[in-house]
Design goal:
- β7 and β8 form a beta hairpin.
- It is built from two helices and ten strands.
- It has a single domain, classed as Alpha-Beta Complex (glutathione-dependent formaldehyde- activating enzyme (gfa)).
- The protein is globular, with a radius of gyration of 15 Å.
- It has a seven-stranded mixed beta sheet with strand order 6-7-8-9-4-3-10. Strands 1-2-5 form a three-stranded antiparallel beta sheet, with no helix packed on it.
- The chain is an alpha+beta fold and 146 residues long.
- Helices cover 14% and strands 32% of the residues.
- The structure holds zinc ion (2 copies).
- The site of one zinc ion has 9 residues, from loops.
Length: 146
């Protein structure tokens, strides 16, 4: 199936498959995504837990904050995605067929957007603290610490 969600890293050591469609496909312009991906923003497919299955290899994980873990391939260095307590995501460029999955969610982290990085679509623009998944993740990470 052309719109089946499969993907992986540059060297092929990490492969994944999603069992159903993403909850959203959104940009994140936050400073951490800029640093993590060396780009102006990251474009993610966000999935509810257990939808995303790693079919090959084991991504290395970097805990970039108390609520988020960023996974990557420790062989080729490709970033693969970010996980929250209730959410897994992958970066659009790691998909085998990104043509079938245009962004439909929002622009997150708008407070950190690089000024020349012009937005040419009409998707909503949210500050990080306005993102419902982020709010949930923060709550969950606070609960875990108690
Ligand atoms: Zn790799
Ligand atoms: Zn971000």
């Amino acid at each position: 199936m052309k719109n089946e969600i499969n993907g992986g890293c540059l060297c092929g050591a990490i492969r994944y498959h999603a069992k159903s469609n993403p909850k959203w496909i959104s940009y994140c312009h936050c400073k951490m995504c800029q640093k993590a991906y060396g780009q102006a923003s990251g474009i993610f497919l966000g999935f509810t837990k257990d939808v995303l299955v790693i079919t090959k290899g084991t991504p290395k994980k970097y805990k970039s904050s108390s609520w988020a873990e960023r996974s990557f391939c420790d062989n080729c260095g490709s970033p693969v995605g970010v996980s929250y307590t209730d959410l897994d995501s992958v970066l659009i460029g790691t998909l085998d067929n990104p043509d079938y999955w245009p962004p439909n969610g929002c622009h997150l982290g708008i407070e950190s957007k690089i000024q020349w990085d012009l937005i040419k679509d009409t998707l909503p623009q949210w500050r990080t603290e306005d993102d419902p998944d982020f709010i949930e993740a923060i709550k969950a990470s606070k609960v875990e610490k108690q």
